[in-house]
Amino acid sequence: MTKRTAGNDPHEFSGKVVVITGAGSGIGRSTALLFGRLGAKVHVADVDSASAERAQRDIEAGGGSAVAHTVDVSDPAAVEELATRVYEQEDGVDVLHNNAGIGHGGDTVSTTVEDWQRVIGINLLGVAYGVQAFVPRMLAQGRPATIVNTASAAGLVPAARMAPYCASKFGVVGMTEALNAELAPQGIHLSAICPGIINTPIVGTAIARGEFAARQQKAVEFYAKRGASPDQVAEAVVDAVRKRKLIQTVPKSHVVPTWLLHRVSARATQPLSRIMMRAAIGR
Q: For domain 17-280, which architecture applies?
């Protein structure tokens, strides 16, 4: 469970409503638990109903308030139904965290059209469907709101053999920046969270093709050994809400050096993009 750190007021988000997709595990679960401990009422949404319900019980066991929902974010009708259910129960949403995502690793020649559709459908369009379902309601609710979209370091710096994933996450960053430019003057601030190597189940459940499929367990072990805790990302999400950050990297040591290099010279990061996958799979 997410540890309470110094400076976290257990009443900071009292009276606030938070909706999190992909909240049954990993970053989403840690973020849901943290918001629950900070006093928010958390709507926990996940494609896996059992994991959503476990997160709900854990929030309630810690003295928080939560509601579990089952939703596939790649289905726009399902996301619209989620928004309808939430607004039937609440007079507004203060934070929407579009977090649900899926991993992908593999050579382009081994990647299928269906892989592209699934990764883009969940990671990028799933965020867009959340925006489409919640923003009109947020604009009408009469109080400010924040939308946090989970991107990735791979949305700031490319990684070879991860083209569908990078495309989806670069898209999330661009979408977030464009929407913030449009909606911030109307009271809706957006943030893109860009995590580096995080120890979550996403690597083990990722779509795996080619050599990556044969060495996926090596990548799981690499992320378990080198990855930061999802609790650290949860803290970064809350910090982004507090400080209205547009781009939030976490951990900074994983992301910022290569991001700065990429901003100076995209060509200079190409060798690094080739190294990343080889390091993860132990080659």
A: 3-Layer(aba) Sandwich (3.40)
